[in-house]
Amino acid sequence: METLLLLRMDGVAESVLRADDLSFSPAGELNLKASVGSCNVEIQFSPRQRTPPFTAELQAKFAGLLHPLLTIQGCCQGVEVQLDQDHLAFGAVVQRCQARKRIVMMNTGGIDARFQWKTENFPPELSITPAKGCICPGMEVPFEVTFAPVELINDKRYENLSCCVEGSPSPVTLTVTGSCIVASTSKEVVNFVCPVRGSHSQTLPVFNPTNQHCSIRPVVEGEQWSAASSVILEPHQNKTYKITYRPLSVTADGKKHLGSVFFSFPDGTGMLYSLQGTAEPPKAEDNIVHELPAKTHHTEMLPVHNWLSQQQRFRVLMEILKPDKPDATVSLKGLEYIEVPALARRDYKMSFFTYKEGHYNTKVTFRNKGSGDYLYYLVTFKATSPGVLSTIELVTPVRQTASATVQVENPLTTVTCLTTECKCPEISAPLLHTVPGQSKGSLSFEYQPLCAGESTALLTLHSHDLGFFHYDLLLTALPPPPEKTVHFNTCLGSSHSVLVKFTNHAHFKTEYSGKTDCPEFTVDKALPQAGSEVSMEVSFEPHQLGEVRGQLSVSSAIGGDYIFPLHGISLPPKAQGPFSIRTGHRVAIPFKNIFLQTTTFSFQVDNKCFTVKQADPILSKKTHNILISFEAPPEGFPGPWFGKLTVSSKCSEGHSRPCSWVYYLKGLPL
Question: Which pTM value belongs to this model?
Answer without folding.
Answer: 0.56
